[in-house]
Amino acid sequence: MRRSLSIAVALALLLVASQAHAHAELDHAEPRVGNKVATPPREVTLWFTQKIEPAFSRMTVTNAAGERVDSGKARISGSQMSVSLRGGAAGTYRVNWHVLSVDTHTTDGNFTFQVGE
Amino acid sequence: MDWFGAELDGPLVAVRTVHFAASAVTAGVVIFGAAVLMPASRTAPQVLAVAPRLRLVVWLALLVSVASGLAWFILQAAAMSGLSVGEAMSPGTLWTVLDETQFGQVMLARSLCVLVLAACLCLGGGAGLRRLRLAAALGLVGAIAWTGHAGATAGTEGVVHLLADVLHLWAAAAWTGGLLALVLLLLALRLAPDRAPVRIAAVRRFSTLGLASVATLIVSGAVHCWILVGSLQLMLVTGYGRLLTAKLVLFAAMLALAAANRVWLTPHLATMAADRSATILTCSAMLELLLAAAVFALVGALGTQHPAAHFLI
């Protein structure tokens, strides 16, 4: 029995790195993180590595002057969260997000994208 | 609070530990009844003398499980909403967590298992009710998988992870709760006439249950490690990995005791030194239970940590 345990433990420890993500991290976004777009987007969409809880997940978008330009209520479906933008000028936009994954872990983060030629 | 370099939320870890241990004892004693006590009673009806005491243990463990489950729900609601515990105890926040989150829905389903189990315990023991009681106990423990990391793993890997966690939870309950029931049975048989063959019948059956549990724990634990840790390096450098390593060390110690019980003590139950062997077996099983309590504390902590595999991103 002890031998089988040591084999199993060794097996568990030596397995190569898996690609699993065990709580919700930002997978990608549209507009893309750090990218430049010509005109202000109509909405910002974030895709996470896991399903998130609509009740406790939120995001805001602010313009270069620090003013909110999102419509307020984010739409959440599965692992995706979107918010409409009210339009705006060229400049740097900052997206702040805070999500609760279905495994009860909270994560948050932020990134920027540029609007303008 | 800090264990092995992992920052911990003390109250949350404490209520989770108590809740997991109490739920495991509840289910484990019920499993012991179905897999050891009832079959053993066909050849050795004296084992049924411990049945009322086991029933009492299930009731007590169920009560502790409900109380600690409520406390876990409230603390988790505070953590999820980012509010203080006092603020999170408002009906609005608690209802949102119960109604709109996966954690809340799972806790609701587990509450139904508690009600069914309590009703079965009150109504007594036909064969149908015994099966329903076993199903409710397995549901109470197995559903915990959906509150944790396995409940959020995506795709096919998510299904494998959930299956592994459900089996892991059932096996852990069968081993630890069964061990407690075995200790109570051995203590109850201490002065009974013709105790040696009765003890052998019960211990052999428990031994089979224990072996099946250990095999299941090893395989499902390996799947869990592969998904949530991924490499030896992460096992040692992350807080999650170090907690898991500590858990594996305790598990190995429990296994060594179990192996000694099976290989060395169980055969002696049939010899002249039967009573002495039974006493040593009881003490060794109690020591295993102490180690199991420490394992539950580590499990209470592990679920609150970001898994090691996250650090690969």
From the structure above, extract its key features.
heterodimer; A: 117 residues; mainly beta; Immunoglobulin-like; four-stranded antiparallel β-sheet; four-stranded mixed β-sheet; 11% helix; elongated; B: 313 residues; mainly alpha; 11 helices; 2 strands
Please, could you describe this protein's structure?
The complex is a heterodimer of chains A (117) and B (313). With 117 residues, chain A is mainly beta. Chain A has one domain (21-115): Immunoglobulin-like. Chain A contains 1 helix and 8 strands, in the order H-E-E-E-E-E-E-E-E. Chain A has one helix at 2-14; strands at 26-30, 36-37, 43-48, 58-62, 75-77, 80-84, 91-100, 106-115. Chain A has a 4-stranded antiparallel β-sheet, with no helix packed on it. A 4-stranded mixed β-sheet of chain A has the order 2-8-7-4, with no helix packed on it. Chain A is elongated. Mean pLDDT of chain A is 81; it is low at 7-21. With 313 residues, chain B is mainly α. Chain B has one domain. Chain B has helices at 10-43, 51-81, 85-88, 91-100, 102-123, 127-142, 155-188, 195-228, 232-237, 239-268, 274-302, and strands at residues 2-3, 6-7. In chain B, strand 1 (2-3) and strand 2 form a beta hairpin. Classes of the chains: A mainly beta (117), B mainly alpha (313).
Write a brief structural summary.
The complex is a heterodimer of chains A (117) and B (313). With 117 residues, chain A is mainly β. Helices cover 11% and strands 39% of the residues of chain A.
- The fraction of residues assigned to DSSP E strands of chain B is under 5%
pLDDT averaged over residues of chain B: 89
Under the CATH scheme, the architecture of chain A is: Sandwich
Total domain units of chain A: 1
Q: Considering DSSP H and I runs of 4 or more, what fraction of the residues of chain B is helical?
A: over 70%
Mean pLDDT of chain A, nearest integer?
A: 81
Query: Largest interface, with Cβ-Cβ < 8 Å?
Result: A-B, 36 and 51 residues
CATH domain fold name of chain A: Immunoglobulin-like
- Measure the end-to-end span of chain A: 68 Å
Q: Can you tell me the CATH class of chain A?
A: Mainly Beta
User: Which regions of chain A contain 5 or more consecutive residues with pLDDT less than 50?
Assistant: 7-21
Q: Oligomeric form of this entry?
A: heterodimer
